[in-house]
Write a structure and sequence with these properties.
There is one protein chain. The protein is an alpha+beta fold. The chain has four domains: 203 residues, Immunoglobulin-like (Sandwich); 134 residues, Neutral Protease Domain 2 (Neutral Protease, domain 2, Orthogonal Bundle); 93 residues, Immunoglobulin-like, CATH 2.60.40.1840; 305 residues, Zincin-like fold (Alpha Horseshoe), CATH 1.25.50.10. Helices cover 41% and strands 21% of the residues. It is built from 28 helices and 31 strands. Helix 10 runs antiparallel to helix 11 and helix 13 runs parallel beside helix 17. The structure holds (3S)-3,7-diaminoheptanoic acid and zinc ion. The site of (3S)-3,7-diaminoheptanoic acid (B3K) has 12 residues, from strand 20 and helix 3.
């Protein structure tokens, strides 16, 4: 009976699948678009005038994508017609000639738009989000990235509520209307796809600046926010100017309009959007001051501002032919923003952070049911493909090509790419072909990185001829099966390697770049006079997993002697991982090698404190889990806590010395940031040691802090603390923090998130209580992510053996899906990891996935993620 009910409840139609191989050029082009908006939050009228031209010889009608609207009127060449049809959501218009003027009018309802796609209202501001397929929610249009048009936009709105009217391109004219309304017209001379369309109307104030481009043009810059937020926009404006200068210097890319505007809104599905000349941002990537934003927030703001700005060339001037090419713009642009950030401070620390992010977000994706290639072959809902694979693995692909070509040839290749494809919609293949042509390299095998999913694994062993002589590095590559791809070919791996002498600690060779493309092979080094220790995949030159035969002693050695900072970090991570895996599997582990290596790192005066802070951090619970075929979340948690406690206790004096020695006046500089980071890592270890004064130490820091980095770190330490000895201070700090920042949404997000990430045993119950808090709402994506998203990645709390964590997440996702399918779908992946846990947990996780899939009226976003996760 139950089964019958379930099958009845299942969606009868599986969402349609879009395939890369089905790509056909558009039947009709739209060289120009005129849009007129009568803006009103309750009902906005949109009149669109499209000049359309037949693309090639065919008899197909014009098909314009829509999203459930019914046109109020349709005209062809000035005459109202009634032989249009709606084919599902698509408006079909029969046309006889090769060029026509099409006019449509629709009514849309921004205030009711909880999906935050298309035109919507956010705290009284009207704004748009069109990528990937939101433009069709505004007007009927061939909503695909290979239809490029120049846009003229006229907006009219109530002057008092919406004094500022912005759109893409440059402002053309503005004026008053009757009834307290006013209008403005904007024109964007650069042909663009509809996903880059944007408008904003609201009561906004601007932090203005100017930038003079390399050829001497002055660009007017504006960061638009609510008046009361203006004081928190200087960092974003400064980052924008740095990014504009950097893209000129490093890529020869100059800005091309007279104005560049950024608007920050509170309700936004992701980080930000690169609309031509009018970027729209989630306010968390704009607003910062020392009292409310951490160093991490400051870094992220600069990175996202730069990322969206860089899209002006990598994405806007050269866009994507179809959404399967998404990594063409996203992978490349992430690579560009990573390099920009590396140039602002420590490149070594930036690389470590990027690799940590890749391992936290992309490796699990590549190893799970949602694995897909950097250039996918099919999708049901394109919004689900804005993934760590497209973005971060995509960036690693660009980085590998840059490594293989070298800086000069890489620049020549990007120049060629921009010049050849400017004003067009290109493919990943076009990019690779430019790399080959300008770089003089053969990338035939490298292309597999675009088509094969999965993280390659490389087994490494070193043979050394006794008595000193040849050293042979033996390599064996494998790529595990992923959904739809049972058999893989070996990939081309650019590997940087170097040998160090085990006795002397000195380099035995120069760094060598080896392009390894075989399943099995070797690299030899001659005249190696002492036992070599191998440093491999230096700088993380290929995004792969290394399985080496290096001993704990070798890893400890490299953590001290490798001259590649990433190599030092990596050796320490591997040493820690091996220890944690042993602890999780056997219930106990020898901590001595890690303790000694951490101690040596802490006491090396030559090291940058920012690097030290990264190097002494333990791998996350989920990364430890990724090393194991079967995860026991409690065992991993216990093993990690045991090692943290041991490190805390054994090195108590060093942590306290680091803590006291790393005091700095607040400044947002790389040096001061590094000191804060080290100090807060030291605080965490002191707390982990169980020292009697740790709660007091953290609470004192919490109260005395003159910046959010220190305050939030102290709060996080307290929030993790058990009732004894942390009870009083923990409760007090959470209360003080909440009251101090009441009304500041971005800081309240931190308050929710800190509690959702707590390692305490009662976190599940606490989070279930927090969804009933008056400040909690699923309608705001930042708030939903801060509690529900953070809970999903809290390994201990989410994987509670009774399945309450799984049930909680599923309940929340089903509720969120009603409002905002895109954001709900993004938070689903933790439920898909059922293959990695014991049968009891796996059954509970699958039951929740099945319940989601069987929910009536589910979005295709969540349906695709949940059904694929069932595998
Ligand atoms: N291009 C946007 C992301 C749009 C996501 C649509 N689901 C922001 C960025 O990557 O720069
Ligand atoms: Zn992007």
């Amino acid at each position: 009976m139950l089964d019958i009910q379930r099958s009845l409840a299942q969606p009868i139609l599986t969402p349609a699948v879009t395939r890369r191989e089905d790509y056909r050029p558009p039947a009709w082009l739209v060289p120009t678009v005129d849009l007129a908006f009568e803006l009103d939050p309750a009902e906005t009228r949109v009149r669109a005038t499209l000049a359309v031209t037949r693309n090639g010889l065919h008899a197909e009608p014009l098909r314009l994508d829509g999203a459930g609207q019914r046109p109020v009127s349709v005209k062809v060449d000035g005459t109202a017609i009634d032989d249009w049809q709606l084919d599902g959501e698509t408006l079909v218009i029969p046309l006889a000639g090769t060029a026509h003027m099409i006019e449509t009018e629709v009514a849309i309802h921004p205030e009711r738009n909880t999906q935050l796609m298309g035109l919507y209202a956010s705290s009284g501001i009207l704004c748009t989000q069109c990528e990937a397929e939101g433009f069709r929610r505004i007007t009927f249009f061939p909503d695909r990235p290979d239809v490029l048009s120049t846009y003229r936009v006229r907006m009219s709105a109530d002057r008092a509520r919406f004094p500022v009217l912005l759109a893409n391109g440059d402002p053309v004219a503005s004026g008053g209307e009757e009834d307290g309304r006013h209008w403005a017209e904007w024109h964007d001379p650069f042909p663009k796809p509809s996903y880059l369309f944007a408008l904003v109307a609201g009561d906004l104030a601007a932090n203005r600046g100017t930038f003079t481009t390399v050829s001497g043009r002055e660009v007017q810059l504006g960061i638009w926010v609510r008046e009361s937020d203006l004081a928190r926009t200087d960092h974003a404006l400064h980052a924008l100017k740095l990014a504009m200068a950097w893209d000129e210097q490093v890529y020869g890319r100059e800005y091309d309009l007279d104005v560049f505007n950024i608007v920050a809104v509170e309700d936004f599905n992701f980080g930000a959007m690169e609309n031509k000349g009018l970027n729209i941002f989630n306010s968390r990537y704009i607003l910062a001051d020392p009292d409310t934003a951490t160093d991490y927030d400051y870094d992220a703001i600069a990175a996202v501002v730069a990322h969206e700005y860089f899209h002006n060339w990598s994405g806007n001037r050269v866009t994507c032919r179809d959404w399967f090419q998404l990594s063409l713009k996203e992978g490349f642009t992430v690579y560009r923003d990573q390099c920009f950030s590396a140039d602002q401070g420590s490149a070594a620390v930036k690389r470590i952070e990027d690799v940590r992010g890749l391992r936290a977000g992309q490796f699990p994706e590549d190893a799970g049911p949602l694995a897909h290639p950097v250039r996918p072959e099919s999708y049901q809902e394109i919004s689900n493909f804005y993934t760590a694979t497209i973005y971060n693995k995509g960036a690693e692909l660009i980085r590998m090509m840059a490594t293989m070509l070298g800086a000069q040839a890489f620049r020549a290749a990007t120049d060629l790419y921009f010049q050849r494809f400017d004003g067009t919609a290109a493919t990943c293949e076009d990019f690779v072909a430019c790399m080959e042509e300008a770089g003089g390299v053969d990338l035939a095998q490298f292309r597999l990185w675009y088509s094969q999913a999965g993280t390659p694994r490389l087994a490494v062993a070193v043979d050394h001829e006794a008595g000193g002589g040849r050293a042979t590095v033996k390599l064996a590559q494998s790529v595990a099966a992923t959904p739809g791809q049972p058999d893989k070919s070996p990939m081309l791996l650019p590997l940087k390697l170097k040998l160090f002498g085990a006795e002397t600690g000195r380099p035995l060779t120069d760094e060598r770049l080896v392009l390894f493309g075989d399943g099995v092979g070797s690299v030899t080094f001659e005249a190696i006079t002492e036992r070599p220790v191998l440093s491999i995949n230096r700088g993380f030159s290929a995004p792969i997993v290394i399985e080496s035969d290096r001993t704990a002693a070798d890893l400890a050695f490299l953590s001290r002697h490798d001259d590649d900072p990433f190599g030092r970090y990596e050796a320490m991570q591997q040493l820690m991982l091996d220890t944690l895996v042993a602890g999780a599997v056997e219930g106990r582990a020898d901590h001595q090698a890690v303790v000694a290596a951490v101690s040596a790192t802490l006491s090396d005066p030559a090291l940058d404190p920012a690097f030290v802070a990264e190097a002494v951090l333990l791998p996350s619970e989920s990364f430890v889990g990724d090393q194991l075929a079967m995860i026991d979340p409690e065992a991993i948690f216990r093993a990690r806590e045991a090692l943290r406690r041991e490190l805390g206790r054994a090195l108590d004096a060093q942590w306290r010395a680091a803590y006291d020695g790393a005091r700095a006046f607040y400044a947002y500089t790389p040096a001061a940031k590094g000191l804060r980071r080290l100090r807060n890592v030291a605080l965490g270890y002191t707390a982990a040691s169980g020292a009697g004064d740790a709660a007091k130490l953290a609470f004192t820091q919490f109260e005395a802090a003159d910046n959010m980095t220190d305050r939030q770190a102290a709060l996080g330490t307290l929030a993790n603390g058990d009732d004894r000895p942390f009870g009083e201070e923990r409760v007090a700090a959470l209360d003080i923090f909440y009251n101090r920042y009441a009304g500041n949404g971005l800081v309240l997000d931190k308050w929710f998130q800190t509690q959702a990430l707590s390692t305490r045993a009662d976190t599940g119950a606490a989070v279930a209580e927090l969804v009933r808090h008056p400040d909690f709402t699923l309608a705001n994506p930042n708030r939903a992510r801060s509690l529900i998203g953070a809970f999903g990645v809290n390994q201990r709390a989410f994987h509670t053996a009774d399945g309450s964590g799984y049930r909680f997440l599923a309940d929340q996702l089903i509720a969120l899906d009603q409002l905002n399918p895109q954001t709900a779908a993004k938070l689903l992946p933790p439920l898909g990891r059922w293959r990695r846990v014991d049968a009891g947990r796996a059954g509970l996780m699958r039951a929740e996935l099945e319940r989601i899939v069987a929910t009536a009226g589910l979005s295709k976003d969540l349906f695709e993620q949940a059904s694929k996760s069932l595998g």
